[in-house]
Amino acid sequence: MSEHLTEIIVFTILFAVVSGMGFVAARWRRPDNLASLDEWGLGGRKFGSWVTWFLVGGDLYTAYTFVAVPALLYGAGATGFFALPYTVITYPLVFLVLIRLWSVAHVHGMVTPADFVRARFGSPTLALLIAITGLVATMPYIALQLVGIEAVLKTMGVTGDLPLIIAFAILAAYTYQSGLRAPALIAFVKDALIYLVILVAIIYIPSQLGGWGSIFDAAKSKFAATPAVTDGTLLNANNQLQYITLAFGSAMALFLYPHSVTGVLAARNRGVIKRNMSALPAYSLLLGLIALLGYMAIAAGIKPITTNGKADANTVVPQLFDKVFPDWFAGVTYAAIGIGALVPAAIMSIAAANLFTRNIYKEYIKRDATDAQEAAVSKIASLVVKIGAVLVILLIDPQFSIDLQLIGGVIILQTLPSVALGLYTRWFHRAGLIAGWAAGMTAGMLMLYNIANPAINHAHFGGSAFPLAKLGLDTKITIYAGFLALAVNLIVAVTGTMIARAGKLADGGDATSPTDYLADEGDPRVQKIELSGSH
């Protein structure tokens, strides 16, 4: 550990400064009373363009960006670039879904996607399923952030669980005190550090490795020497379908996550969201450069750190920084990764806590809960969610931490018919949506269970690339499990709706439900959509 002393000192100082900002954030734009979900969980719904830019950017571009994507390129090659098109595809979808959801939520004081589903389809059961889905899908995503911190600590020679527990405790404490204001304030520092590190890395590291030509040649040579048919610097016939469906499926999943919704609902108006969604694809350029760190690690001869006989691919990027940068700047890069984990982990835990409070606690335990009681329960729930995320790490322990996020993506995709399509049509019947959710979730879990990864000795849950051969087809082609699961969901939801309508089952709507104003605030052209009611 002594050889990493400078790195540890720099990392600790920056980590401490940012954690201090998290506690101070409770007084930043302080309202008269933080004891409500609007204030604690959504920052008062008053964030403007700059704050929203950093908040949503910090929310969507996480430790997963810095650690998991380069690790996937390091291990599998071009397939890892799926993250680049999917972040580009996401933003048009956000225009279609989240801006509309913001309008609905703004008028009716909704905090979660499940709030909307409850009002839209008049079904507390469906809303409960959406809330549980969001909670379960978010835990592995939070775990992914903790994996990022763990990879940095390993590289610095810091062993044992205590440092990670301390970082977890600090995150839990300032999130509990400051709510969404904490990650919103910290996001400024997080993004500044990440931009600094990447700009230095893409200029300095290639100069130390003989240029980009040498870097790509080294990657090509590595993959040519492996027996795998799905790796390489170029896609091939065996992984092209997986790449396409993974990129498109991940794009649809991203805006359905509770933390994505939370970041958007905190904006003060629709104009803020539109400006940010138009500009945020600039982050995708950064993501592409970050991904190339995986190839740089190959060219630099980096080997993953091995713990208990298992190689941890998530450590390749921190080790690359340790090898090529001076100790003090390596410490800065580690802090960027660590802080890049704190911001999204805080937002995710808040979003999951809001789901529990609004759609489980208030719906089924205490219907007359006051704003203060809601806020108190949400604070405690945010702590429980973080503990759940730690358990995900202990129980699943995949080779590539990206698998954690991909498993969550398969799960959260099953909310698309109720949330995304529900914003545009009430044709779906609640019984059909519930049946579709159950079918899609079952299919997704069965496929994930039957995906093996011999390289890491995992017979089950070894990734999200489902072999079509398991469906009886004579091929080596794989497809994203979430894509097939969503297809099953939609087919069953449509069929169930048609059967319910043929049987003239009541759809649970309330014809007197209020309407939503979907035009910009102050726009005289008022467009309305009924939340629920007869068709």
Automatic annotation (TrEMBL):
It is a multi-pass membrane protein. Signal peptide: none annotated. InterPro entries: Na/Glc_symporter_sf, Na/solute_symporter, Sodium:Solute_Symporter. The chain crosses the membrane at residues 6-26, 47-74, 80-105, 126-144, 156-176, 183-205, 243-267, 279-302, 328-356, 376-396, 402-424, 431-452, 477-500. Coiled coil: none annotated. It is found in: Membrane. This is Sodium:solute symporter. It comes from Sphaerisporangium flaviroseum.
